[in-house]
Amino acid sequence: MCPDCGFIQYENPKIIVGAVVRLDDRILLCRRAIDPRLGFWTLPAGYLELNEAPDQGARREAWEEATAKIEIVSLLAIYDIPRLSQVQLIYRARLIDEVIKPGIESQAVTLFKWGEIPWPEIAFPTVRWALRHDRELGDREIFTPRTNPRGESDLP
Q1: Is residue 146 part of a domain?
Q2: Before 36, cis peptide (omega within 30)?
Q3: In this predicted model, what pLDDT tens digit does every residue of 107-122 receive, in sequence order?
C-alpha cells in the first residue's frame, strides 16, 4: 500500500484453465512452442482472461492451441500450485470436430491413445495428474473434482 496516496497494489494468484479433451479413446495433447517447457507435451490450457468464465476460457485455450472445438463435460480437478501462485481448473471435454492443427503456441497437436502418451515428455506434473485422474474416473459422470495428489511434487 502506498503511504502517500493509499493505493493498494493487489497481487493475486493466476488462474489457469484447461481440459482433458477426448475423442473416443484418444486424448488431445499439444507440443509446446513456447517456454516454459518448450517442446514438451501438455493439455490445451492457459491463463483465464478478464471477464471470462472458466469453462469459456478452457474452450478458448483449446481453440488457440489446437483449433479444437470442444464441449465441456464437467470440472475434473482443482490443483493449487502455491510456489507459482496458481490455481488450475481442469475440465473434462469432448472433441466435437476431429479436425485439429497447431495454434501459435503449439509445435504439434496429436490425439494419443493411453499407451501412446509420451510420459517422459509431459511438460508439467499437473498434466500427469489430470490424465491419471481422468482415467481413474472412467465413464463416471458424478464425482467430486480431484485435487493435488498427496505426496507428489508439482516440480517438472
Answers
A1: no
A2: yes
A3: 999 999 999 999 999 9
